[in-house]
Amino acid sequence: MFKRSGSATRLLWNAVATRPSQFLGAQRRQGWVLYRWETEFGIVVLAHAVGGEMGMTFPGLALLHELAHDAVALAVVEPDYSPPDGPSLEAIDAAGPDKHYGTTWHRLERVLGMPAPYWHTNLRDPELMMAWKPGAPTLHVPAVATPNPAPLLRLAADERDDSHAAAAALEVARRALWICADSAHKEITNYVDASDGIAVAARPVMPHPPQPVAEEVLRDGWRSILHRTDFLAVECARLGHVLGATRYFPGSCKVTVDPSSCAQAEQWASRLQPSPRTALATYLGDEREQDILIDPVTDMPAVRTTDGMIETVAPQRLSAHSPLAALTIGRGSVWVTTQDGTVFLAPQVGGGYTYGYSGGGPMALARLIDLLLDDITHRAPGYDGPWPSAGLRHATGEGWKGRTPPFTLTRAELEALRDG
Q1: Rounded to an integer, what distance in angstroms lies between the CA atom of residue 148 and that of residue 85?
Q2: Cα 366 from Cα 196, distance rounded (Å)
Q3: Residue 339 · residue 349 · CB < 8 Å
């Protein structure tokens, strides 16, 4: 049963206390830290979400019953802000559990008779939150990064001081921690400090800003990590993906190849060899029983599927030693042949390469050709970057419209398109 005595619709908007309330302490529920007060209207609860992704929560009857079954009102701290009132609050009353409403920290203070505590999303350490009491001084705490970068720090600690793998892991962890701390500092300064009725419970300890690391070091470090077979490296691969390090990965885009689609695909498939499961193979799924293959030329992992296809990871750049000789447009894949006769799956970082219409896929294919004609080891362009030549744009957008794959264009033909 919900306590309704003294409750009123939109209590945390309209009510004003005539006597002090009593702070009843903090409680922990799965995914929440709750602060409770006994007010003259009944029990009022303030809820902060902790852990995981923190999206908008519009409280209703179910949440009221779960978190505050004996309360007359529940307020939930939202992850956004409503200037000049500070962090957004959504509330629900036991007297009207089908109607949530917004309120402000100043109006909540009028009900409680004291400022309520605010913990920024990036500073919510449940143990520290549970220890808060009215009048407590503002704490200075390290930012809580989500996901937790601890595996990256462990890997770095296990490496030699001059290890590129350690430098790559630390770069991601430091950048993630800095972003979390800097975001908390700026948002508290810009949206919280000038608002009424808020007890700022914590501010971030600011780490040193991350220093730039040479791209060659990061690429070599991540290559080393992703070629390992241990579980710590797998965890770091997943964290690197989530925390924005994939531009330094040797590959990060899953591609499905039909080995019977063209001679180049068949040649590539014939050189695959059995391999231990590397951290980079995480992109191909988590099935530990998969028989992993590897392309010995690029070190990209692959697996055969039950329907005869091969799933692999496209390299971000080619480990080639001679210039582009020909480009083959296959069914669902693009192949590069160099002058020494080596066949490569085209480098790729995002959506697939396509042709025959005006759009991102044909533009990316034109950009790829433009770049590889000048530098066979250039990183895959993706869907952004400088515009390719008008001739290549026309070829991939309209010129090849209606052509049936596979078809191959020599370097001379590609250069003529680019220069035409």
Answers
A1: 31
A2: 56
A3: no
